[in-house]
Every structure is written in structure tokens, then in C-alpha cells.
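We examine the record.

___
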Amino acid sequence: MNDGSVVWKPLDGRPTRTTLDDLPTVLLALRGPMGPVDAAAVGTAAGDVLVLTLPRLEVVAKFSLQSGGIRAITLVKNGAFHFLVGTQHGAVWSLCDARAERCEHVFSIDGPVSSLHLEGELVHVRSGWIHHVRAWDGTSHDVLNTAEAYPVRRQRRLSDTYYLPYPA
């Protein structure tokens, strides 16, 4: 739905619904200390990240970036609200509830962030076909265009190029 609704439908019990102020763009489910999923981080089109409890969908924490819509979220540290967030303008932010400065700009890339992944001290950021590998301080380790490896298949015949639904 495009009215800002978030719905939690458990296997047993009643569904719960809440309406956010902005449209949700990305969702990350968080496991609790006992094992099952007990929270969800929701990124919105206005640049906010909300942490909702499950199954009641109450807002526990809110981070306001005002840096464009949120396109990707990943969890940095288990057991704490520490996220790495990518926006549609290419900015990557570190959000942590335990710091004095809750929202910290880490680095930016050219183009919107499609996905984020952490491997040790390296941050893997994808923007379409471009794969950026950065350190936490923003220094670039590698930039790879993954589309370069795909061969361009040329058509030799005109009949292979165009599809005609009916014989002429």
C-alpha cells in the first residue's frame, strides 16, 4: 500500500497495523536476545529511520537524517541500535542510539545506494551495477563496474532484432 501503512501479521494472533507519517521505503527485521524477531527498522521516503517494536508497532527510536529517502539499512552491532544507512543521494550514515551525536555522516558515493553490506572493517556499497568497497573513514579500496563482464550480444539478422506478433 502507498498510504504509509505497516502491517504485522503473526502466524498466531491478530494482525497489527500502524500508519507512518511518510512512505516506508526499506525494512530490516531485528532479532531479539531470545531469538525471534522483536523489532523492525523502517526507512522512509522523507529520510527518517524508525525502530518499531513487534508485534505492537510502537516507535522505540527515531533518527532524522533529512538527506533524501532511505534506500538501504544494515545492522552494525547486534544487541544495539547501531545501523548503517544509505540514501537516494548516495550518502552513507552511521546511526547509533548510544552516541551523543546519533547521526554521523560516514561518506558519499556517486549515485543512489542500492544495498549495503559489512565485512569486517570494510563497507560494501552497491549503486546499480557499480560496487564500491570503502573503509569506515571513507577511503576507497575498490570500485568495480560489474556490468563490464557481460558481453553485448549483437543480432545478425533483422528478424532476430524485432518481434512481429503477426505475419506481415
Remarks:
- Helices lie at 158-161.
- The radius of gyration is 20 Å.
- The longest strand covers residues 24-31.
- The mean pLDDT is 86.
